[in-house]
From TrEMBL, chain A:
The keyword Coiled coil does not apply. The chain crosses the membrane at residues 14-38, 58-79, 91-110, 122-142, 154-172, 192-211, 223-244, 250-267, 279-300, 320-344. This is Membrane protein, putative. Keywords: Membrane, Transmembrane, Transmembrane helix. The keyword Disulfide bond does not apply.
Amino acid sequence: MLSDQTLGIKQKRFFWKIVIPYIVLGMGVVLVTGGGSWDITNHILNKPESFFAEPHLILYGGVAVSIGGFIGTLLPIQNKNLFNLKFPKRLSGLGIFLLIIAGPLDFWWHDMYGLDGLLSPTHLILMAGMLFTSIGSIVGIIRIENKSERKTGVILQGLVFSGAWFSLTGFAHSFSLPFSKTDYVDFNPEPTFAAVFATIVYPIVMAFILITSAKVNSGKFGYLSTTGAFYILIMILSALLPNPVLVDTIPFYLMNLIPFVLADIIINKSKIKKSHYIAGAIIGSSFIFSYFPLITYTYNEVMFDRLVWPSMIPLIYSEFIVVIFPILVACGAVSSIIGTVIALRASRRIII
Amino acid sequence: MNRIILASIGIMAVYFLVMGVVFPDALSFTEKRETAPFFVTSQEKKSISSNESFDFIIDTGITGGDSDMLILIIGFPDAKSFDGIKIKSSDFTQSPKFFEVGDEIKTYYPSDYKIAEYPLLHIFNMPNPINKKPILQLEITPENLGEYRIFTKAKSAPFTEDSIFPKGGNVDEDNEFVEKKVVIVE
């Protein structure tokens, strides 16, 4: 009995020793993406920019945390090869490399072209770094869990998945938000393209991340909901709270948890065939509400083409949403099929 | 049909009703900010000698509530460049924009004045709370003898009919009123 206990403790220690670096990798990305989201809000509010602005410090801190996590994955631990971690280690290594070079390259870009917009080559490098690092972190955690009897739990996994969600969202924002025109370059997407792109890609991103979080933890309720809850929490902290005119929208924004919980129930509590596709459609159909407030800028460009001052976001959103939300709900549900297909295929590859 | 699916349809219907109808309806009651800028200019001298400098001070602010932006637009029709114009002190938080003669004028407000015919300074706060009353102090050294004019106007955002100052006076290239101040260089 005592020897069983000792073995259990040893296994527990071994599990955490090997999984913690991958968790830290993912946490770093959560900080980077959260800081990035807050930075976008500050740009919308036109707050004066400085190298040491709070969002920037969180972003740099996140890169440092991820680097720490990556170093941890390289530490020699006995029996580590059992977990098939070559791919996540290489992918996160590439991600960390991109995160590190993105800083000086961005500094050089600023030097050459002044203040930059959202879409710039160096920002794409940063986003690719965040994405690779977070995917490496997720794959590492899932593979370690699948070869162990232990689990990191819904909280840690939810956080790491939300980092990947924000990383993909960063790409989607870059090609759909009109935030990329500067004094020197105009990388703003064409308004119609941006609206079509947003309508297709945001639901795909949501379904992909959330269905993957459920599928790799098959039969366990809570992973999808927690990932969604962290997304909502980070959005509230980084996009709604810093903008005084949007603080009152928080109770409504919290309602976006409903489709996530429902999707989680359908996948894990119902015995319906094709439950992932139904769940994906529910998730995708809510994209227009989950991507508030930034989505206001995308659809305003194509519908009204007004100058969106921060105080005008609620009014402009209220004007277009009533008109187009039934169409966007349907489009979101259809687009989510692609995200679900990708999620199901990716999940099979993650779990070897 | 599966009970969970039936319940989900009902819950999602309520969700869409709240988020697609009630939420925008609540947002539509958001009060539109209607602000109006103002400013007072002061200059220490009405006339100066050649190569002498003078200080030009603009006290500004807004009424009606917090504004998304307060911008001062200052034109120097008798200057050839910004060589003789220096910002001595400023309470504005954003970096000022200096448009030299021939520069393309990139504005934060709707404008038809595209190429600068004389040096133009844009200086602004984004946002500008109602209690913030920024002061701009310029030190100006005119290059030529004669009349040295300074055109000043202010705008606040969101833009409405009221969000511009002054309401009368001379008219600039944008067909908007400006306050004209003159210093004689002898």
